[in-house]
């Protein structure tokens, strides 16, 4: 995939956690935030949640159609309410979760290498 094929924009949210139960709780809480606060914004594509197999990390990759869509969301969504929702989610966990992001965890897709087409399709 080339940049022209996908001009998407991504935000990566990275947390360390103290076990699989906290992983599941954090993912459910953050998915609820996406459902209630984020997915209705223009340009929002999806949120994908990844749990490390060792039970210590959670990654949330939020996909936007463009950087402009993300910036519009960031400017128009009530940041204080969003932060309060995140803090409530963290406070409601049975275990501990710690953010690992530094700076603005935002990215543009520059290149993707996909699988080879089937032998008969080449």
CATH architecture: 2-Layer Sandwich
Helicity range = 25-40%
- Secondary structure tally, helices: 3
The counted number of beta strands is 5
CATH topology: Alpha-Beta Plaits
Portion in beta strands: 25-35%
**Rg over alpha carbons:** 16 Å
**What is the C-level CATH assignment?**
Alpha Beta
Mean pLDDT: 90
Broad shape: globular
| N- to C-terminal distance | 17 Å
User: What structural class is derived from the secondary structure elements?
Assistant: alpha+beta
How many individual domains?
1
Biggest β-sheet strands, sense, barrel: 5 strands, antiparallel
The helix-strand sequence is EHEEHHEE
Low-confidence segments, given as residue ranges, are none
GO molecular function, one term: monooxygenase activity
Organism: Conexibacter stalactiti
Domain ABM: 22-78
InterPro entries: ABM_dom, Dimeric_a/b-barrel
Task: Describe the structure in your own words.
This protein is of the alpha+beta class and about 120 residues long. The protein has one domain (about 10-105): Alpha-Beta Plaits. It has 3 helices and 5 strands. Strands 1, 2, 3, 4 and 5 form a 5-stranded antiparallel sheet that branches. Strand 2 and strand 3 form a beta hairpin. Helix 1 runs antiparallel to helix 3 (about 80-90). The protein is globular. The two termini are about 15 Å apart. The model has no long low-confidence stretch (mean pLDDT about 90).
